[in-house]
Structures are given as structure tokens and as C-alpha cells.
Amino acid sequence: MSKSDPRDIDEDAILKGMSPEEIEALECELQEMDPENAILPAGYRQRDQTKKSPTGAFDRDALLDHLEKTALEHEDRDDLVPFTGEKKGRAFVPKEGHGKIPDHEQITLEPELEEALKNATDAEMCDIAAILGMYTLMSNKQYYDALGTTGTIANTEGINSVVKPDAFKVFPDEPPNPTNVEETLQLIQKNDSSLFDVNLNNIKDVPIPTLKEIFEAMKGNTHVEYLSIAATRSNDPVAYAVAEMLQENTTLQSLNIESNFITCEGMNAIVKAMANNNTLTEIKIDNQRQKLGDSCEMEIATMLENNSSIVKIGYHFTQQGPRARAAIAITRNNDIIRQQRVR
């Protein structure tokens, strides 16, 4: 009798003749399971058993009642060593004279002073300790309250009182900037002599075209000496307008463009324009949305070295080299002004 070759078995025909239930059972048998692997989820360590028919009726309330009843009827395990209440060991008895100040460390005061301290309250002792500089015996609040008052007892509690936090102080929000942007623009365009300080700080809704018009009008203005547009969402187009203004204006002394969206390109344009400006003495450019970068800081340091009029600059350098060069240049410019004032 000849044996059939396994390679001659038509597996496709066998699978086609199987029912869906038989195919599902075959897949379950062929699954590779690893019940000893604790890293795998439970579904990969054993075969799926959720599709089995229930063996009986399930009553959740009855099951909970049964578990609770079983727990109540279960007796507690007796202690291996029962507690008898017996005290073991010896009670601590302090030595005679323990806690007393040695005779050589005792301080003898005048009778009047001893009588005053003997009748002093805890609050008065707290103030006396603060005046004598014994700040380690009390909280910071008690210490500074005692030093800040004269003639009265500042502390109402003693040294050993519970430290309590200060009452929360509610401070009102700062009022919005009352500057009328349109009226200010008209005054700048008219070159009004009464307007010498323009403050547009924290006005978030100023349109970019309006800011550009302000700097366009500042080109020919001869009275405004202080101009501040901090936190107005100014960007590079405004920076280019500032650069054009600095090339023509000969009156402005202080410019503040901090806390805006000016990038390195816009700041480089302003720095290059300041090379030909000899009237600006103070400029603030810090806290921009984007970091200016090393190359821009080098340009700022070079500008300060070539400009003898800038005596104040508001910018935090991130690199040591430009910071040192800027500090030397600012010191030199201030020294030049000092020498001119002395003469």
C-alpha cells in the first residue's frame, strides 16, 4: 500500500469545503500563544474564551450579596502573639538638673530689667527679640513688623505662635492706555509744538498702516523727542518705516520698540539706519517674539562702536562677545558726555 505524498493534498479544496465555524476553530488552534510571557496582554497569552455560551444565569445583585455575606461570615485570624497590655522596659526619667542653664552661662540682669522681663507678655518678648536681632526665633513677618513700628507692640502673638500667611492683596488691573491714536497722528502730521512725548504702549489694536503713517509723519517732525510703541504687535514693515524715519529725523532722542514681532531682518534695517543718526540717545529693542540671533547682535555691537550718541540701550545680549563690545561702547559714549559737561 503506497503512502500519499503530503504535497499532493489540495489545501485550498479542503478550506473551501469547511464551514465558517470550522475555519474559526482552525484559526484558534493555529494561534501562537505564550502563556508564560507576563509582558504580553492577556488576549495574547491565551485563546479567546469570550464567545462561549454562559453556563448559568448571571445575577449581579445576587453575586454582590453573596460576596458581602461571605466576607462578613469570615472569621478574623487570631494573632500569633496576643496583646496583654503589659508594659516592657523602663520609663524614661530625666536626670536631676537636666535642661537647666549652667551657672557659668547664666546672665545676671539689673533688678528693674528682670522685673520688666518677668511681667512681659509673649508679644512683647517677640518684639524685644526682633529689636535685639534674634530673627531666628520668629517668622520673617514678625521680625519686620517689629522693626517697622516705633512706640507700639507690632506683634499680637508670641514667638511660638503658628505661622500664618499674609492676607492676599487684590490689586486692580492697570487701566488701558488712554492715548487717542488718530488724534496723536494728526498732531504729529501738523508738527504741533505741544506734543513732545508719544506713548502708544500696550495698544494692541493699532493697525499696521497707522503705525507706518506715524513714522512717515515723524520724518519731518521737529518737536517729538520721546516715542514708544512697546507691545503694539509691530512687525517688520513697521521696522522698515522706523529705519526710514531715523535716516531723516533730527529731533527724536528716545525710541522704545520693545515686546513686538520684529525679526532679525527688520532689526538690522533699524541698526543700519542708526549709523547716520546723531540725535538718538536711547533705544529699547528687547523682548521680541523671535530671537534676533548672533549676527544681529554683532551688528548692534558694531553700530554702538561707530555711534557716539547712544548712551542707553535696552537689550539683553545672549552672547558674551557682543555684550562686552556694547558695554565698552556705551561706557565710552557716557564718558564723552561727562567730559563735555565738565568743560
UniProtKB/TrEMBL annotation:
GO terms for biological process: actin filament organization; muscle contraction; myofibril assembly; pointed-end actin filament capping. Keywords: Actin-binding, Cytoplasm, Cytoskeleton. It holds the Pfam family Tropomodulin. One of its GO terms (cellular component) is striated muscle thin filament. Its main location: cytoplasm. Gene3D superfamilies: Ribonuclease Inhibitor. It is found in: Cytoplasm, Cytoskeleton. GO terms for molecular function: actin binding; tropomyosin binding. Belongs to the tropomodulin family. This is Tropomodulin-4. It comes from Oncorhynchus tshawytscha (Chinook salmon). The gene is TMOD4.
